[in-house]
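Quick one, tokens below:
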């Protein structure tokens, strides 16, 4: 079966880095680089105009940083996945990126071949959090949200747990609706209720929190080693 074409927007203030990533990705027949943004404000504008499948977003951008840009893009274009690509790997930046709605976080220091493979996984599965960061991210979410008021597994219905299981396995809203034989609107309603119960704001946070609460297994979830 032919791989689905993935449209990508590259947001980075370094021209040489953007051109290098573009040349690398355009060597793959299944990737189409549809635009480049030198700053966060331009990334937001192009995201709304071009509606790419994936945005490779640097954190340190002029005019508007990558985290603020991610937050606006995820509000305006929830179907666009944002993959933070940065040299920063400290907990604070990871937490900010995920809380802003980023679907994943990768280091700029990755070798070229590993970056392409990571993008393949990300494009197919929608979540990309390096395993070595997962424990720290869970701990950060506990500290940020506070554990004393954390919901117990009994607060999620069987259907909501099933939705979380499918979400953790990388299914899109459309795929979840097909497997549950319900409308996409119903899936979105389930997700909104789950987000409220788990005290999170987006799909990636929900996956992390669901793993922490034992709703789903990290081994089954599409979070690579």
């Amino acid at each position: 079966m032919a791989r689905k074409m993935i449209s990508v927007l590259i947001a980075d203030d370094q021209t040489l880095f953007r051109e290098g990533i573009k040349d690398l990705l355009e060597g793959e027949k299944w990737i189409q680089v549809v635009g480049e943004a030198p700053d966060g404000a331009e990334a937001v504008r192009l995201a709304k105009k071009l509606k790419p499948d994936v945005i490779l977003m640097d954190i340190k951008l002029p005019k508007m940083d990558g985290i603020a840009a991610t937050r606006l893009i995820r509000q305006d274009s929830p179907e666009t996945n944002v993959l933070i690509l940065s040299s920063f790997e400290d907990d604070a930046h990871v937490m900010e990126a995920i809380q802003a709605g980023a679907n994943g976080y990768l280091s700029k220091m990755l070798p070229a071949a590993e970056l392409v493979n990571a993008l393949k996984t990300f494009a197919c599965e929608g979540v990309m959090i390096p395993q070595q960061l997962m424990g720290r991210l869970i701990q950060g979410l506990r500290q940020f949200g506070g554990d004393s008021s954390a919901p117990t597994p009994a607060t999620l219905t069987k259907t909501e747990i099933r939705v979380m299981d499918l979400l953790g396995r990388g299914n899109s809203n459309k795929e979840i609706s097909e497997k549950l034989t319900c409308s996409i609107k119903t899936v979105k309603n389930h997700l909104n209720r789950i987000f409220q119960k788990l005290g999170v704001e987006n799909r990636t946070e929900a996956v992390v929190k669901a793993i922490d609460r034992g709703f789903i297994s990290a081994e089954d979830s599409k979070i690579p080693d």
